[in-house]
Design brief:
235 residues, binds iron/sulfur cluster, hydrolase, iron-sulfur, mainly alpha, Endonuclease III, domain 1, 2 domains, Endonuclease Iii, domain 2, Endonuclease-3, metal ion binding
Length: 235
Amino acid sequence: MMLAAPLFTDTRLEEIHRRLLAYYGRPPERDLWDPLKQFIYSMLSSRTKTEISLEVIGHLEERFGSWENLRDASIPEIEDAIRVVTFPEPKAINLKTALEEITRRCGSLSLEFLKGYRTDKIRSWLERFDGVGVKTSAAVVNFSTLRRRAMCVDSHHLRVTQRLGFVGRSADARETERRLMEMAPVKWAPEMLDEHHSLIKIHGQQICAKNHPRCGACPLLDLCPAGAGEERASG
Ligand code: SF4
């Protein structure tokens, strides 16, 4: 039996992308890291500012010289090295445990073997580790040299998507990513999904802020139910 074609194509994500690109310009090109470095970075970066996370990953490389040395360091030493990120203690424990587990399962400390896996299998393989959720697995597959299709939903992306009404206010990152990937054009390559993530993140940082969104200055105002409400309240 032939499936009926959809009555309309949802082009809202494309329109949002176009407007944010015109408003903010093209985000800086990403320096692609290997999957292990991206995994370590993403484990440490949750609820931490990007500048601090970048500083910490550079500091870890300098201080330990290799990821094997980081893995073999004591938890207090790792905790000390990452003390400027949020929740350094559980992150140090989770990171050391994950690095040891990767070595035990794979025979060496590398995630290069993931290149031979399907994207969904990579993600479920990564999400088995404590401290690794859907956001980290999406970052590893999309931002690293793996370069697969995924949408990394961080706190900015979650908030903006909720305000735009694409998901409910209680939606989590997994549900939000699923919805956004339904809306994203199939022609969007991994690089485009990465660019979209970066644009929404910039928007969340600069205009659609957590406490005081500046809806009057927002290029998405006419598409946004939350923004329309804000405007009515202040008008
Ligand atoms: S209109 Fe307001 S709430 Fe909506 S996306 Fe823009 S800043 Fe955010």
